[in-house]
Design a protein that fits this description.
- The protein is of the alpha/beta class.
- Helix 2 packs across helix 5.
- It starts with a helix and ends with a helix.
- The protein has eleven helices and seven strands.
- The longest helix is centred in the N-terminal third of the chain and has 19 residues.
- The strands form two sheets. Strands 2-1-4-7-6 form a five-stranded mixed β-sheet. A two-stranded parallel ribbon has the order 3-5.
- It has two domains: about 120 residues; about 120 residues, no CATH class.
Amino acid sequence: MLEFLEIAKTDFWETFGGAWIFPVLIISIVWILAGEKGWGRKILLGILPLAFLFLYWCPISGMLFIKLLGDEVYWRILWLIPLAIVIPYAGCILLKKLDGIKKWTVFMVLLLVLAVCGKPVLSTEWFEPSVNAYKIPQYVIEVCDLLPSNIHAMVSNRLMPYIRQCDPTITLEYGRNALNYNGITETDSKEQLLYLEAQKSEVDLSVLLPLAREADIAFLVFSNNRTYIGNWEDYGYREYGTTDEFCIFVDVNYEGTQEEA
């Protein structure tokens, strides 16, 4: 029970925290219940949102949803509350009761309330100024500038979403499929063993590199803060290049290495 309430509280504040939109929602629901004459709209825009809030906070229904959906996505229950409809509709009910200058004055006040109570979409929490033509993190560009085209690579999770935006000829060993391996601790799958070993802060090269070669991975890109058990050269790989945040290793049998040498 306490675990559920902690999850519900955390998800609720991450959804509505930093803004006053939730009190506005409650006021709007009350106004719709009081002012709407049609029972269809009263149920849809007044009673139903309250029902979703009750189901969200009720331990019985909440623990059932968590079991079905998982605690990491429980907050999506709050998406079922149609905020973008309920709040404007309540404002429309209020404006219908007014006319002339009063209507326009209240309309402007409502717009001001929404602006003050909401949270800026283009906030630094979610957006940052672009520093390159690709509009992706600069550390990705720096890595891609060093990597050749038409290669098969295994890269840090931080790079996975962006590498192919820079160069679509580069194929990745995991890409989005890596998410399927999160949470796995024991496995006999060579693909999963390769991924799990690569996630360790201290990587055992005797485990990683034979699996990488078997998967025809020519390039491996890791964060500079990683440490390794063993020497790359002993397993047929060498350092290819570095950036401020990443180190690139290459299979010595990769045909491009002979040309560079």
